[in-house]
Write a structure and sequence with these properties.
Largest sheet: 5 strands, parallel
Strand order of the largest sheet: 2-3-4-1-5
Shape: globular
Number of helices: 23
Helix content: 40-55%
Number of strands: 9
Structural class: alpha/beta
Distance between the termini: 87 Å
């Protein structure tokens, strides 16, 4: 039976885990010193080794020939082999996404009263723990607080913000790092050699880049590419498989953005659509070009990663305009990645980018009229943030439901007439919840504040009297 690469090359011991040095060191020391906790919480993005680490830990605490120097399981005894094959009755892997009810947790609670059939510890690995219902979390609390000595819980999640603090406080929490591009590249080289996959270094580098810190994603892409041909896999072939456009298309799009030529850019978009290119990856490539442009403009004048045609425009472009381009790209990236009509949203993005030059020109003409309004603009993602906020706190989300938000540099100014909403905005605890909801949508950290409204002459007079300690009564 054929095993896909990410299953075949799943880490077997702690030393095989990549970029998780602190987590591995602590777990090893706990096993060697026999200071085993009753509950662990593994959190981090997908493909970083959370479930693999849980399985390795399960083998180590139940291994018959444990290496007391390294804390690694032997992977040869009957206990290790049973866990590796998934045939052990004492190791239960549960998917909380499909077993998220109170009854499922009650079943676990009943099972914990029985001692392990063979092993020293009975272990429950609950993946995607954030998918549990509120009732299920409440049912899990008591078991986590006072479990039997032979029970170990290992909870894994990609969304730690959805886990109740009462659960987190009862576990040892380990944050799994996103795996670095260089580490993924080295691992892909090693596996390619072992599997006799002929692939260029540039192609492997691209795979490690687009995998975005996930080893599983990188191995899945390598597996897919290796099945295309027995011949040598080059960069262009991998790009076509992934739906990444050729560099000349990206260069042309950037050139036409600088020229504010939407029509010619639209022609390229239609060609990319006919070739079934991934517009999320197209946006990512454009962001990378603008990152290189900023690098060229601010730090390294001899940067060789840009074409001469783009360099010509860069020399004529002010830094504040380049930053404006990048801000628009970053704010639109999340929308395009979640959109059902990616081409339409990408076209809207291009329209915005092509109009930046015009907008900046208008601002420069009115430099003498630089007022507060020119620095503050309505925040387009506020409705998405409100929806995200309702998932975290329905009361807070409803209170801010009819509000508006305005962006001014690093500030997000919220305009609301609801008294309860204003109260929440003055609360540090609720501010942190709002900031978290904003960061999940925008990946930016904003300072929150009230939207400055125009004051009439009466307001100014009253404030002046108040400053002079004159008490007025309005009737």
């Amino acid at each position: 039976m054929y095993f896909v690469l990410y299953r075949k090359w799943r880490p077997k011991n702690f030393d095989d885990l990549t970029c998780q040095d602190y987590t591995v060191e602590i777990l090893k020391n706990e096993i060697i010193s026999n200071k085993i906790s009753h509950a662990y919480l593994f959190t981090g993005c997908r493909g970083t080794g959370k479930t693999s680490c849980a399985r390795i830990f399960s083998k180590a605490v139940n291994c018959l020939n444990l290496d007391l120097k390294t804390g690694n399981p032997c992977c040869k005894c009957q206990n290790c082999l049973n866990i590796e094959s998934g045939s052990s009755l004492d190791i239960s892997e549960i998917d909380a996404a499909s077993n998220n009810g109170v009854d499922n947790i009650r079943d676990i609670k009943e099972e914990t009263s029985f001692t392990p059939s063979v092993f020293k510890y009975k272990i429950y690995i609950i993946d995607e723990i954030h998918m549990l219902s509120t009732g299920a979390f409440n049912a899990l609390l008591k078991i986590l607080e006072e479990p039997p000595e032979h029970i170990i819980f290992i909870l894994a999640t990609t969304e730690i913000n959805k886990i109740p603090l009462t659960i987190i406080s009862r576990c040892q929490r380990f944050d799994f790092n996103r795996i670095g591009q260089e580490s993924i590249l080295n691992r892909l080289k090693y596996i390619s050699e072992k599997e006799n996959i002929k692939i260029d270094h540039a192609a492997l580098n691209l795979i490690s880049k687009v995998s975005n810190g996930s080893m599983r994603d990188a191995l899945s892409i390598l597996d897919q590419c290796s099945n295309f041909s027995d011949k040598n896999l080059d960069l262009n072939l991998v790009k076509n498989i992934l739906g990444i456009p050729e560099e000349n298309y990206i260069a042309d799009i950037v050139n036409f953005i600088f020229k504010s030529d939407f029509k010619k850019t639209l022609d390229i978009i239609n060609v990319l659509n006919e070739k079934s290119k991934n517009f999320v990856l197209v946006t990512d490539e454009i962001i990378e070009v603008f990152r290189q442009i900023l690098w060229y403009k601010t730090i390294e004048k001899n940067f060789e990663g840009l074409s001469e045609s783009i360099k010509k425009f860069v020399k004529k472009t002010e830094l504040n305009m380049l930053i404006k381009y990048v801000d628009i790209l970053k704010s639109s990236y999340n929308l395009i990645s979640k959109s059902n009509n990616k081409m339409a949203d990408f076209e809207i993005l291009i329209i915005k980018l092509c109009n930046v030059n015009t907008d900046i020109s208008k601002i420069n003409i009115k430099k003498t009229e630089k007022v507060e309004k020119s620095e503050i603009h309505e925040f387009a993602l506020w409705e998405d943030i409100i929806e995200n906020l309702k998932l975290k706190s329905s009361t807070l989300g409803r209170a801010l439901g009819n509000s508006k938000a305005y962006e001014s540099e690093k500030f997000l100014l919220i305009d609301t007439n609801v008294k309860l909403a204003k109260t929440y905005l003055n609360s540090l605890e609720h501010k942190e919840i709002i900031k978290q909801a904003i960061f999940e949508i925008t990946e930016k950290n904003y300072n929150l504040g009230p939207y400055p409204k125009k004051k009439n002459k009466i307001d100014d007079f009253l404030e002046d009297m108040k400053f002079q300690n004159v008490n007025l009564e309005i009737i």
